[in-house]
Amino acid sequence: MKRIITFGTFDVFHVGHVNLLERARALGDYLIVGISSDQLNISKKGRAPIYPYTSRAKIIHSLRFVDEIFEEESLEKKAQYLQLYKADMLVMGDDWKGRFDHLSEYCDVHYLPRTPSISTTELIEVIKEVP
Ligand code: CTP
Fold it and tell me: Is 8 a pocket residue for ligand 1 (Cβ < 6 Å)?
């Protein structure tokens, strides 16, 4: 039984998120997703998420290739989360390439290519511009 863990905000859910989660799950047997708290998103991206944690969590938890979710409260706790959830592999999009290599003392660390041409930030900008 190989346990995969990944982290993200997953705000304004889009196909790039689906592709990442689907491929992460295919690398093992059980997928755990740490979803950023609203406060963590504010400190990470300088703005509140459009959807609050409860809505983002409900969407992610409803996916058939996601087995378990939890609220990620601090970026500094990654090592603790990996141990708590007994992760065998950490999977992240390659916008984070290299940034989690130091966690390889706890589990394998693997980066997946991002889906081109879509991101939450760009979607918010496009929606804002609609007259
Ligand atoms: N992701 C992806 N392909 C995309 C967008 C996101 O593979 N086109 C992945 C990220 O690499 C990350 C996960 O989805 O592993 C969650 O990313 P998140 O930051 O929540 O989404 P973004 O759309 O990148 O949000 P933002 O534009 O606000 O940074």
Answer: yes
**What are the pLDDT digits (tens) for 80-131?**
999 999 999 999 999 999 999 999 999 999 999 999 999 999 999 999 887 7
**Using H for helix, E for strand and C for coil, what is the string for the chain?**
CCEEEEEECCCCCCHHHHHHHHHHHHCCCEEEEEEECHHHHHHHHCCCCCCCHHHHHHHHHCCCCCCEEEEECCHHHHHHHHHHCCCCEEEEEHHHCCCCHHHHHCCEEEEECCCCCCCHHHHHHHHHHCC
The pairing of beta strand 108-112 with beta strand 89-93: parallel
| Cα(1) to centroid(ligand 1), Å | 27
Residue 2 has pLDDT above 80, yes or no: yes
The model scores a pTM over 0.85? yes
Return the closest-CA partner of residue 14 out of 73, 72, 60: 60
Domains, the chain, in order of start with CATH, read 3-129 (3.40.50.620)
| Nearest residue by C-alpha to atom 15 in ligand 1 | 93
